[in-house]
Amino acid sequence: MSTFDLSTLELPIVQAPMAGGPSTPELAVAVCRAGGIGFLAAGYKRADAVRDEIRAVRAATSAPFGINLLVPTAEPAKPDGLRAYLRRIAPEAERQGAELGEPRFDDDDWAAKLEVLYEERPAVASFTFGCPDESVVNRLHGVGVAVWVTVTNVPEAHAAREAGADGLVVQGTEAGGHRGGFVEDGSDEGGIGLLALLRVTARATPLPLIATGGIMDGAALAAVLCAGASAAQIGTALMLSPEAATAEAQRALLAEPRPTRVTRAFSGRRRRRVEPVGGAGARAGQGAPGRGDRATDGSRGGRSYRAGRPGPPASRYQWRPTLSSHLSSWPAGTIVNRLIVRCPPT
Asked: Would the N or C end of the chain have less CB density within 10 A of its end CB?
């Protein structure tokens, strides 16, 4: 059965699926109506909630859209290491007025969400933090769903191609939020810059590439298209739009000229976020467990640092790319169109 083809998009724009708050059906619809492809973020939601959001998008537009799933690890982090980490950050949590919960592991309703995809058949299913098994890819292809996999290095690109992926979301180190990769290749902790990663990935595989990471204006869009991408995935550029459910505290913080840092704090996975006042992020990231999915889930059991949850704004480890000075609060469709209008010919 045929699947979605990027070349059919009116505009080479993909809305990033920002799990944990900003992504909404309204945002996905707005990007679709502007000529790109919108995405829903299934991460941190139950399967029934994902189904409801899919139907909300379908009720508003007939355009193709995608769903992003977070791939769970095979097993949880080691309890002893996780508890030692929680003890290490307990003084910082007390200083910030936060409470640490008990360590726990869950697979983010993985199997049930896959069933939703098989039944609802969005145009694209994208995967982050891992590559789905070939059997999952084949079943999605069997119901007409294209499969994209987020990669941060060439070994991951090879793994995705071998599994049958139709496209690669190539994530550079400039990206805000979590690194979506799943294979340690020995590269620097900070990761590989987007343009360099696009070039080496393009040489390694013929699959279509969707560039993501710090794409905030037309010049950046032109650069990634010249570097071999078929489209650009934008996330932070849309976070101040009225369609995004970005928390007010995070909206305010995004407008501030603050440095960012790559850390393993919060989940055990590398992520880029705003450096909290007083260096709390550096302290919290020291000794964090490895890249297991939701490895530090216990740290979210009480008053959480996540956007939209209780806690002082300066203490929330909110994510942002290396460049956020081009943010605007225009409607999402306007932001998309301005990217295109200001994109030099490629």
From this structure: N
